[in-house]
Amino acid sequence: MSTTRRTPDAADADHRYRYLDESGHLVDDPPAVTETTLLELYESLRFARAFDERAKSLQRQGRIATYAPMAGQAGAQVAAALAMDDEDWLYPTYRDNAAKFARGVDPADVLALLAGHEGDGDADARVMPEYIPIATQLPQAVGAAWAGLLRSGEPEYATLATLGDGATSEGDFHEGLNFAGVFDTPTIFLCQNNGWAISTPAERQTRSKTLARKATAYGVEGVRVDGMDPLATYVTVRRAVRKAKDDVAAVADEAADREAVAAGPSGATRPTLVEAVVRRFGAHTTSDDPSRYREEPDRSGDPLPRLETYLRDRGLLDDERVAAVGDRVETRLEAAVERAEARETDPTAAFEHVYAEPTPAVDDQRAELERLYEEYGDRVAGERH
Predict the structure, then answer these.
(1) pTM score
(2) 276 forms bridges with which residues in the sheet?
(3) Are 101 and 332 in contact (CB under 8 A)?
(4) Fewest CB within a 10 Å sphere: which of 14, 184, 210, 369?
(5) Are strands 187-193 and 200-201 parallel, antiparallel or unpaired?
(6) Is 280 designated active site?
(7) Catalytic residue among 19, 91, 293, 310
(8) Of these residues, 239, 242, 284, 294, which one is catalytic?
(9) Taking the mean position of all CA atoms in its chain, how far away is CA 283?
(10) 293 among known catalytic residues
(11) Assign residue 120 a region: left if phi > 0, alpha if psi is -120 to 50, beta otherwise?
């Protein structure tokens, strides 16, 4: 683990595809994104920011376990999730709650999971359980996309797998991209490059100038985008989703609309590696002390005020509408916390799914726990918090 304090250079390289400057003003012609989508982007970002702050507070109070903040990266997550079609599947990591919420996952479920309750993922929202071991979701996302392709002979759905820059140092990353390239699967790899794998800076992980370039060796398109620009990220991922499903005409229209910043092929293949350059504003998790290894991060270009400025310039937001969004966000968040904390725990659930069929030892342990609860009640587990 690196403990020398420094400011990463890898997350500040040039040639990032963007529509908005760091103040939220257009640097190019506006993209063809509907007003409904723009406002959904904004409200989803507001909710993600509010959830992030509340979750950190709940963790400090001992009401949930270790939490991975997403400030600085939520813009890329929300934009990517909203760019997906309803039938597509999301394969998230532990830091991707903003994407999960944008896909329709109940925030109460996320809080309950963080408090130790069972259950994760949402089949109705087509969101897989979050993956803690780094990069293990990538081959699975490719395999699921390939399954749909084999079943129908054409893409049934796309899969979008999220990852951090640290995941590109794992074998599963290379296996996943190679498989996607060889079998031409409808898979999007969204790499949120915040420049740090916990405390290891990007330049200690790779000599490649960009992570998007890594796609070239596998016959996969690589695109680099300013991940803190929600507009650019939405357009980039939306194009990747349409390309994954062989929507050649739509991709050609997009390519004609503006020059793509790509490190790989011209887009003839289905899979895409999107390197979204972001900043991690806070700690890796609530168990981390980032002051040991890096300077205070630059917060310019924060995706939330950046998008708000653009929407105000467009006449889609004013003070009254901003306040109304804030009220809705707070109401939704309070309700989620209440629902999460009202859930009752079934301690015997810990014995389920340990084996395909329970062993005698597991049955004995379960029976002993049931006996203890019958005799002593909740005193077996002590105080809830």
Answers:
(1) 0.87
(2) 192, 225
(3) no
(4) 14
(5) unpaired
(6) yes
(7) 293
(8) 284
(9) 16
(10) yes
(11) beta
